[in-house]
Amino acid sequence: MQRLKAVDVVVIGVGMVGSIVAKELATAGYRVVGLERGQPRFTVPEFQGPAIHDELRFDIRKALMQDNTREPMTFRNHASETALPIRRWESFLPGTGLGGSMVHWNGQTYRFQANDFELATWTRARYGRNFLDPEVTIQDWGVTYDELEPHYDRFEYLLGTSGKAGNLRGKIQPGGDPHESPRSREYPTPPQKEHFSGAMFRKAATNLGYHAFPQPSSNLSQPYTNTEGIKLNACVFCGFCERYACEHFAKSVPQTIILPVLLANANFELRTGCQVQRINLDSTKKQATGVTYIDAAGNEFEQPAALVITATFALNNVRMLLLSGIGKPYEPGTGKGVVGRNYAYQTMSSVASFFDDDVIVNPFMASGASGTLINDFAGDNFDHSGLGFVGGSFIGAVNTNGRPIQYHPVPPGTPAWGKDWKRAVMKHYNHTVMFSVHGSSVSTRRNYLDLDPTYRDAWGQPLLRMTFDFPQNDLKMADFVTGKAVEIGKAMGAKQVVGAPRKAPYTTTQYQTTHNTGGAVMGGDPQTSVVNRYLQSWDVPNVFVIGASAYPQNASWNPTGTLGALTYWSIDAIKNRYMRNPGRLVSA
Amino acid sequence: MRFGPGPRIAVAALLRVCLVLPADGSIAAETPTPPAAAACRDCHGAGGEGNAAGGIPRLAGQSAGYLEQELVDYSSGNRTNPIMQKFAKALSERDRKTVSEYFASLATPYDVARSTANAAELSRGRELAQQGSEAKRVQACDNCHGPDGAGVPHAAPFLAGQYSGYVASALHSFLNGSRKNDPGQLMTSVVERLDDADIAAVADYFSSLASND
Q1: Does A45 contact B131 at a Cβ distance shorter than 8 Å?
Q2: Chain B contacts to A (CB-CB under 8 A)
Q3: Vertex A244, ends A243 and A246: CA angle to 5°?
Q4: What does the alpha-carbon distance between residue B29 and residue A458 come to, in Å, rounded to a whole number?
């Protein structure tokens, strides 16, 4: 093993979080090394057409995702079962390579609502102490919406997000989402153009008394020069966002919003093909000394650093802590320990509305976030009294693509293959509106992450083991909200409306969403959180863990906007407080 | 994953031939000229072949939807040119459609005169067309204009075989404000990052793809 020259900061993973924190610290004058396990890649040439529109390669074979021939995860529904490796990603898609998972995101850029950050306190206050199922372990985040608002704002102006404000400093704005928590200013760019399916949804939802608004999109509606001085283009609605990279410089990803500035900074060094094995601790186990990684040629290096920031995909952040012996692993039997605790997901249901030939939807003309939605059944925007669950879903006509291999909605009863299936695909392809019913996910005692006792990765390290099934709370929620969505489909005048509320058991063989959260959650109490409100490890104060791994439970919306806000919130504390006086930012 | 130049040019040419054949299988020469198209022929040629020296674009085989949209835009002033605006305004809505469909249906042979551009310039043009430039933060032309600029009917015109002088002036027109018909400033945001040498290179490259094979 070769010991390298010490640096001020080592950042593990150069995706969205890694790029932002490295840029802030390098600009402040610190010597920063970014370790990325995947390949370097840029809009030109790697993301250019026609190769980037290869549905077989990217959609079916998951070319942008973590290589699970070398580094899978194992999965089981319940602790009584034996977990097996996930050999092909389907349910969720952790990315790899420079720019991370954000490269293949859809650009759906939400904020959570103020009460999401104080969910346990809020729920008890509104519905009483005994409202929740005892298995549910939701908790407050330790940070408030008001504290995060400037950081949400900063992140949105980095991305150039296209949307319409619904609440400007407390004043409700026509055309926006009236349920949103107050924002300090309008979105950086106006909403993307509305689909025909979105227009139909808007009309029906409005007639039912709901409040439709355009989906906030980081596939931009117009050219935009961001806060780093980098210019992005307008989206062309090509229909290849999720699972693909954007060839037009129109989707906000590290390559289009921050990497050009970061890579030009002499204080930053990017090393790709570097698989970090562990964060190294000194003999007290209370101080990190750096990291050990193996490069693409198989050589092992120790990179000493005064500060370590792990900025990998949520699940991998948790694994990095477990592999490094940082924090006490969670034990579901006793409920003790914190690392791996409160793993949550997203409860995805859907509704398909089938129309006659005269309603032409053009599903292929799409961006990843050009839908029309309502938040009337999201979060706590409706009275849950007597419903027996917390949480909710946004409902929207969110048409992200009509790609030939994967997109063929057909009504129930259609054969799964053969001539009749083909006929049905032709009949319905252009005349079907799909709703996303995008639901929250509570944390529970039984859902958690730990290290697998049997299976190891290509470097000999134990795999992450996921134990997860849908909580009763979320199944009830999915049932209730999907029923509301079906009513909207009927109000649109569809000939047939088919609701598919999420059912147990959870399976990893069906795509749902890549919104894996928790496992290294933030909070005010070291007994129930891994990191403090600034995402600093309680146990090893010179380690920060920044990712959706910090969410104590998941809310009704896509997690990226909130992660961007948390990233700026955390890096501000690191820059302005920690680096000047290293040590605990919050006393335990 | 990238194709060599030879087979791609052949594929692009084949695509063009397929696109311009009328559905009834009749050959282009037999298509009767609609009266409204008579005025177009004075400049754009009897077969819609255009005029290289005059910087007048080839219309034969161009997408009908695209041609019609340009006539609408000339008429509204979204695209300005004293001669074209005068003719476009004189056409009825129906005539715009008729002449657009007529020129789209023509399979007039290409003028395949050898390009005078040097190899280095063509290579630069090909790079911008097929791959773009990370340094300039410009994406490949072919992303929207189709493989080797073969065109994506309605949305994006073909560029392959179009005259170099016309393509260069069309690109400049997005910068000088005489053309504002690119929703989302899709063209303007690309052209403003190219210099004159880039514009000449890409125009010469597409022009060099003229082929009757």
Answers
A1: yes
A2: 1-2, 130-134, 137-140, 142-144, 147, 183-186, 188-190
A3: 145
A4: 66
Name the DSSP letter for residue A57.
I
CATH architecture of the domain covering B24-105: Orthogonal Bundle (1.10)
Kindly give the residue spans of alpha helices, DSSP state H, lying in chain B. Answer: 5-20, 38-44, 64-76, 82-90, 93-105, 119-130, 142-145, 164-175, 188-191, 196-207
Beta strand pairing call for A268-272 and A32-36: parallel
Query: What is the percent of chain B with per-residue pLDDT over 90, rounded to a whole number?
Result: 76
Q: Is the pLDDT of residue A586 over 90?
A: yes
State how far residue B78 is from chain A, nearest Cα, in angstroms: 18
Does residue A415 register a pLDDT over 90? yes
Phi-psi category of residue A325: left, alpha or beta, with phi > 0 → left and psi -120 to 50 → alpha: left
**Minimum CA–CA partner of A220 in chain B:** B184
* Higher per-residue confidence, A165 vs B22: A165
Q: Indicate the SS3 state at residue A564.
A: helix
pLDDT for the residue numbered B111: 78
Q: How close B134 comes to chain A (CA, Å)?
A: 5
Q: How many CB pairs under 8 A join A and B?
A: 63
Does residue B11 register a pLDDT over 80? no
Question: Percent of chain A, pLDDT > 90?
Answer: 100
| CA distance linking residue A383 with residue A377, whole number of Å | 9
Q: Do B139 and A51 make contact, defined as CB atoms within 8 angstroms?
A: no
The token pair that represents A487 in the structure block: 């009513």
Q: A43, B132: Cβ pair inside 8 Å?
A: yes
Distance of CA A168 to the CA centre of its chain: 25
Question: So what's the pLDDT on residue B1?
Answer: 35
C-alpha A425/C-alpha B166 separation (Å) is 43
Model confidence pLDDT, tens digit, residues B193-210: 999 999 999 999 999 998
Distance from CA of B6 to the nearest CA of A (A): 17
Residue B17: predicted pLDDT? 39
All structural domains of chain A, each given as residue ranges with its CATH number in brackets, are: 2-578 (3.50.50.60)
What residues of A are in contact with residue B134 (Cβ under 8 Å)? 42-45
Q: What sections of A208-340 are H helices per DSSP?
A: 254-257, 259-263, 314-324
Same fold flag, B24-105 and B119-207: yes
- Active-site residue set of A: 515
Average pLDDT over residues A304-331: 98
Chain A positions touching B130 (Cβ under 8 A) are 48
pLDDT of amino acid B211: 83
- Return the axis-axis angle of helices B93-105 and B64-76, rounded to nearest 10°: 140
What is the rounded average pLDDT of the residues A81-107?
Answer: 98
Torsional class of A160: left (φ above 0), alpha (ψ -120 to 50), beta (otherwise): left
Task: Supply angle C-alpha A481, A483, A488, rounded to 5.
Answer: 95
**Contact between B131 and A223 using a beta-carbon 8 Å cutoff:** no
Q: E-assigned strands of A316-369? A: 347-354
What is the pTM assigned to this prediction? 0.94
- Asked if A221 and B184 come within 8 Å (Cβ–Cβ), the reply is yes
Choose which CATH entry (1.10.760.10, 3.10.310.30, 1.10.150.170, 1.10.150.130) describes domain B119-207. 1.10.760.10
Count CA within 13 A, CB hemisphere, residue A411.
15
Report how far residue A547's alpha carbon sits from residue A558's, in angstroms, rounded to the nearest whole number: 13
Domain segments of chain B: what residues? Answer: 24-105, 119-207
Distance from CA of A45 to the nearest CA of B (A): 6
Binary contact (A43, B134; C-beta < 8 A): yes
- Name which of A43, A61, A98, A248 to mutate to probe chain B: the one with the most chain B Cβ atoms within 10 A of its Cβ: A248
